[in-house]
Amino acid sequence: MKARHLRRGYRWLLFATVLAALSGWASHARLFWQADEGVYDRLVGGWDYPPDARLAIVAIDERSLQQLGQWPWPRSTHARLIEQLEQAGVHRIALDLLFPEPDRKDARQDRELAAAIARSGKVVLPVLAATTGDEAVPVELLPVPAIAEAAATLAHTDIEIDGDGIARGLYLKAGVGSAYWPALGLVLADTGGPLPGLSDPDAATPSPYQWRRNNYVRLRFAGPPGTFPQLSYIDVLEGKVPPQLLRGRWVIVGMTASGIAPRLLTPTSNEHWMSGSEYQANVASTLLGGHALLPLQPDAQAGLVVLLVLLCALLLALPLPQWLAALLALPAPLLLGMVLLRGFQLWFAPVAALVGIAALLLASGVWQLRYWRRLANRDPLTGLGNRMRFERTLQQEHDAARRSGRPLSLVLVDLDHFKHCNDTYGHRTGDQLLRQLARTLDSLARRPRDLAARFGGDEFALILPDTPQAGAARLLEELLMQVRRMGIPAGHGQLARASISAGVCTRVPDPDSTPSQLYEAADAALYEAKKAGRDGYRCAPAQTVPATPYGGEC
Questions:
Q1: Helix 2-28 vs helix 351-377: angle between axes, to the nearest 10 degrees?
Q2: Which residues lie across from 156 on neighbouring strands?
Q3: Model pLDDT for residues 331-357, shown as the tens digit of each residue
Q4: Which GO BP terms, alphabetically (predicted)?
Q5: 341, 407, 413, 458: most buried by Cβ count inside 10 Å?
Q6: What is the pTM of this model?
Q7: Does residue 205 share a domain with residue 254?
Q8: Of 228, 263, 290, which marks where a domain is finished?
């Protein structure tokens, strides 16, 4: 029994280890990324904070379009806006507008804008990756040279949009060939020091044909769309905004008007769109406040998933109710994800661990159910089938023999003078004799449909399908020889020996026969064997051949 428990423990440990490894692989391969992102959105969606008061958006909104006319506007208009912002004393200007081609109608427009940018000395202009025609090779859309050279710096505006259409983060560095352009929000924040973010393992490998990105971070959004103060472009241009509202601020000038502004969904959107300019404001606010959220490194993520599944397996191995183990294990991945996110600004994707733990709990439940079913059909002392299993199997084999016309043999076995053995050597020795006899019976019932069972006490049985009387008799002679060689050390140099009496009945069931008739005939043969002096067997009368005593053939 102990060896069986050890084997069961090894199998459970092996299964749990394989399941934990599969869960870690699933996490590394991001098989459940959509569910993970759903959990992430719920944890981050309402986790807002007061936005950095130094940030403001100058919005190219519907009212500005109505008053200034159809887009695009003359570049001299943007030059006038920059001058207004300079007069108000802004700290930095991110002009989130593309100027990839010169003004072909009026060259003075480019010169005026370049001059205004140069005089300011604090204007950031965007770089965008794009593909031209049917080519897959990306190119960088830069401002025209005269305008680009006047800018304080250039920055990329590439926003990472996940497969479900939601923008949750971005790469702080990007560029064709290698990641050298900083993100616009990063330049606007100008925090200095080492960059946070998850490194791209391929970022250090130059490639002139790929858009490389590095230092991925997730944003902690200050709130839903509209959280940052927005000033209408036309109001700033016409000097209607008090200078004190702009003094010392980091200003992003960008599109917010529906139809021409980029529209982004974020974890805080609640089905409302966020403009690209406000997204960049969130980037700057996240970096200024030190709120950047970092996904765990893939190996650390997979390792934690494996650890959580193995800890669940350990809980299930402890002497705890399964419901309590489930109550402790199932919330663990979510709690760990929440603690790491809120306490350490690290994102742990919990769903692979949840799936692994749920699978482990389900397997444990099935395992326990099968174990209880085995216990319900097994004798706890010997491991043989019990009375309930014996009766069910006898009925099944009796029905099968009636259909096939094949003989069915039933053997009933008793240990001789078992009470005397218990009284003389003690119950411990008696139990050892019972277990040894059970092992012998089990070794003789070697075919898949053979069954060795114990009724209780010293009573045993063998059900032998497709076995004629002669075959059952040969098996009984082998059993008698093995039992005579049995001996259990009983202390003080004594050796407890045993003998058995057995009765066998073989029948080809007919439509009118019943399993109880087979049992009664075998029991009567067992009684005859005991009357004849024990340590032997008798056969019930065959259907056509009369019974013969032990020593000859049945």
A1: 160
A2: 127, 183
A3: 999 999 999 999 999 999 999 999 999
A4: cell adhesion involved in single-species biofilm formation; negative regulation of bacterial-type flagellum-dependent cell motility
A5: 413
A6: 0.72
A7: yes
A8: 290
